[in-house]
Amino acid sequence: MDMKLSRLFPVVAASAGVLALSACGGGGTTNAANSSTPSTSASPTATTTVTTATPSPTPTSTPAEPPAAQPADNGLCKSGDVKLSLGQGDSGAGSTFRPLLIRNSSAKPCTIQGFPGVSYVAGADGHQVGKDAFRDGTKGNAVKLNPGQTAAADIQFVNVRNFDPGTCQPTPVKGLRIYLPQETASNFVPDDGTGCASTKIPGNQLAVKTVHPA
């Protein structure tokens, strides 16, 4: 063999070996790259819960109560405007007649008209004894009372001994409860005596006439 050729063959063989190694190495690199690629898996979808806040009830304001209406000043005499007392009277035919004196003790004029309500009262609780006074006659004219002036209404007190005791049921009384005409509050006039507790007596134990100037 030619000496030149024999020198060339080892170089060629060595080059071929290098190429073969390069080829093998290239294939290994490709496989490694392919095997190192991570597989992608779908992540579970997160569920988000949205809580809607319930609005708090709006507090409602309570309107203030209107002030109590004051009673209209109609100019009539009220229980607090007067002082009451019993005047001196006369007796006859089984009865005593005495005027109920109504004096305006207030600082303003007031008017009174009609029949006062009159009844006997007894006991610590002031309970009524028997029937109310009978209204005798007709309603009179209005009487205007300036401060300090007095009107009167005549009351008949029947002697209850004129009635059968079993029917009358005689009861000690402490005085009279008086309602001025068109008034709902009462006044008390002390006057010890005796009344009929029964409401079935044949007649009236008390009678009252309309108010008139004193």
Describe the protein.
The protein is built from two helices and 13 strands; from the N terminus they run H-E-E-E-E-E-E-E-E-E-H-E-E-E-E. With 214 residues, it is α+β, with helices and mostly antiparallel strands. The strands form three sheets. Strands 1, 2, 3, 7, 9, 12 and 13 form a seven-stranded mixed beta sheet that branches. The longest helix has 34 residues.
Q: In percent terms, what proportion of residues is strand?
A: 25-35%
- Reading the helices and strands in chain order gives HEEEEEEEEEHEEEE
The largest sheet is:
7 strands, mixed
What class would the helix/strand composition place it in?
alpha+beta
Helix content: 10-25%
End-to-end C-alpha gap: 181 Å
Shape: globular
State the low-pLDDT regions, or none.
Answer: 1-48
| Average pLDDT | 80
Radius of gyration: 60 Å
Which descriptors would you attach to this protein?
single chain; 214 residues; alpha+beta; 7-stranded mixed beta sheet; 4-stranded antiparallel beta sheet; 2 helices; 13 strands; 33% strand
What's the structural blueprint in terms of helices and strands?
Elements: H1 3-36, E1 82-86, E2 90-92, E3 95-104, E4 110-112, E5 117-122, E6 127-129, E7 134-135, E8 143-145, E9 150-158, H2 165-168, E10 170-179, E11 186-196, E12 206-208, E13 212-213
Parallel strand pairs: 7-12
Antiparallel strand pairs: 1-3, 2-3, 3-9, 4-8, 5-6, 5-10, 9-12, 9-13, 10-11
